[in-house]
Amino acid sequence: MKKGVHTEVMVLRRMYIKNELKEYIHFNKLTPEMLHRLVDRIEIKEDGSPKIYYLQMIF
Predict the structure, then answer these.
(1) DSSP assignment of 25-58, as one string?
(2) d(Cα 50, Cα 48) in Å, to the nearest integer?
(3) Do residues 45 and 51 make contact, with C-beta atoms less than 8 angstroms apart?
(4) CA distances in angstroms from 22 to 7, 16, 34, 48, listed in the order given
(5) Is the pTM of this model over 0.85?
(6) What is the DSSP-derived secondary structure letter of residue 4?
(7) 33 occurs within a structural domain
(8) What positions does the domain DUF4368 occupy (predicted)?
């Protein structure tokens, strides 16, 4: 990926994460919907344990 395109993708990803967080900034309870929006992916290891990858929040 070219540097300019990579930078643009990172900026768009930051904007998306920032907007998602704004929606939930004043929450009292973590809901499944909130968690789903902040998780990038979940992998299940051979032993059955999950490895959760959260969206990277680089600002």
Answers:
(1) TT-SS--HHHHHHHEEEEEE-TTS-EEEEEPP--
(2) 7
(3) yes
(4) 22, 10, 11, 34
(5) no
(6) H
(7) yes
(8) 21-46
Whether residue 59 lies inside any domain: the answer is no
pLDDT (tens digit, 0 to 9) for every residue of the chain, 59 residues total?
556 777 888 888 888 888 877 776 777 787 888 788 788 899 999 999 999 998 876 54
Is the CB of residue 56 less than 8 Å from the CB of residue 38?
no
Main-chain phi, psi angles of 49, to 5 degrees: -80, 145
Q: How many structural domains are present in the chain?
A: 1
Amino acid at 22: K
The whole-number pLDDT of residue 18 equals: 82
